[in-house]
Amino acid sequence: VALGLLTGCEARTELNITVEGDGSGSVELAGAVDDEVLADRPDLLADLRIDHLVDAGWDVTGPVREADGLTWVRARHDFDDVDEIEGLVAAAVGENGPFRQVSVVRDDSFRAERFRFAGTVDFTDGLGTVGGDGADGSEPDGGPGDGGGPDLPDDVASAIGDLDAGLAAAIDDVFVVQVAVRLPGDVDSNAPTRAANGA
């Protein structure tokens, strides 16, 4: 049933990083869904648990429908130095979240100043990666059990596992994940998509 409901739907997750020449910049985390998702779950974005972002100084906007036809929630946090990026992302999505070890390193040398970006996007655990750990890396509320939730009968746990595996198989058809990085100067990248001063 869940796989059927997802057919034709679109959900997007974006991590956007902009770095200026002095090493300052901004990190933006954004999520969006299309009208079909909202028709089924009209309060989905409004019910997002993002109080921890506001408390941590993130500027949160939305949900608002934008020109691309999707309804977005965006959270942005400025930084003074690239050394802050990894901590900002980890605190926002959790140590075991889908964006891991995201960093920009500045190398100063006699000849040139160079910025290097690296990070991992990992959805191999299916939807559990998105809904698992809390933003502080803790387990979600619940009773005893490996995932922090209540213990379930074996047949129910097995059915949930099968559903999660099925959703993970279809994730590329439903979820679009983008990491975009803009750096000062000329940019070289192994990313499949290039943009002016970014990838």
User: What spatial form do the alpha-carbon principal axes imply?
Assistant: globular
Strands of the widest sheet, in order across it, are 3-4-2-1-7
Instruction: Find the count of extended strands (DSSP E, 2+ residues).
Output: 7
Q: Average pLDDT across residues?
A: 73
Q: Order of helices and strands, N to C?
A: HEEHHEEHEEHHHE
Q: How does the helix and strand content classify structurally?
A: alpha+beta
Residue windows where pLDDT falls under 50 for at least 5 positions: 1-7, 126-152
Gyration radius from CA atoms, angstroms? 19 Å
Secondary structure tally, helices: 7
* N- to C-terminal distance: 37 Å
Largest sheet: 5 strands, mixed
Task: Tell me roughly what share of residues is in helical segments.
Answer: 10-25%
Question: Approximately how much beta-strand content do the residues carry?
Answer: 25-35%
List the helices and strands and how they pair.
Elements: H1 2-6, E1 11-19, E2 25-33, H2 35-40, H3 51-55, E3 59-65, E4 71-79, H4 85-93, E5 99-108, E6 113-121, H5 128-131, H6 154-169, H7 171-174, E7 175-182
Parallel strand pairs: 1-7
Antiparallel strand pairs: 1-2, 2-4, 3-4, 5-6
